[in-house]
Amino acid sequence: MGIETNFRSANVITVVATGSLIVTTVIFLVGFSTANWVTAVIGEHRFNVGLWKSCYCNYGFTPKFCICGNIGEENGGVQLEDWYKASRACAVIALIFLFAAMGVSVASIFLSQSPYLRMACIALVPSAGVMIAISVIVYAVKLFDNPSNDVFALAYSFHLCAVTASICMFILTPLYGIGHVRTKPGVSNMAQPGMVIHAPGQAYVVNNQTTFPMTSHPHQSHTNPAIVPEEKIKHITDATIDI
Length: 243
Fold this sequence. Notes:
This protein is of the alpha+beta class. It contains six helices and eight strands, in the order ααββββααβααβββ.
């Protein structure tokens, strides 16, 4: 089937879920990559920290002075805690799941109506939500286990990731489930290559030959239609063969 035919056959709820998934993935990317998981303001100094980078700003200067750098063991020999690495790893796995779900979801709308693609989305989306939830929970709990980190407060990057976890588990997963259940095989799914769906009493084409329906007595049955070669069609004026 063509792309347009597949799109017309897709359930509208699945289409809505796919669009929402794309928006959700963009939101998660913002939270995943920006340096605002936590922030601290001490006098004229501001510290912003994310999963991958941190920033220091001094508001005592005009204009304000800010320096940002990557967080890693290669920078100044900083040893990252195991929980920090675990939080990162879960976020990366979640991002992979989200991209995979987007690809499968788009394919299920435009390329194939296979139920296995929709079932893959139903598995990938909540899995991504669970991994994001683990990432943000581990980060928040372990960070504030250290009393010296009480000066920090959770910031917008953290909240964006937490919101995407909820969206994946409690909104997108039900939408994909409903879309899967409501998707029915239509005419376009049942049509076979080389055949044209026809109305009763009309001629149709099978393997480059024109077939005319046969009329019969009410008590008789005919299982095989009459096949007429293409070259003889021009000699036939009546589309119905009388028995």
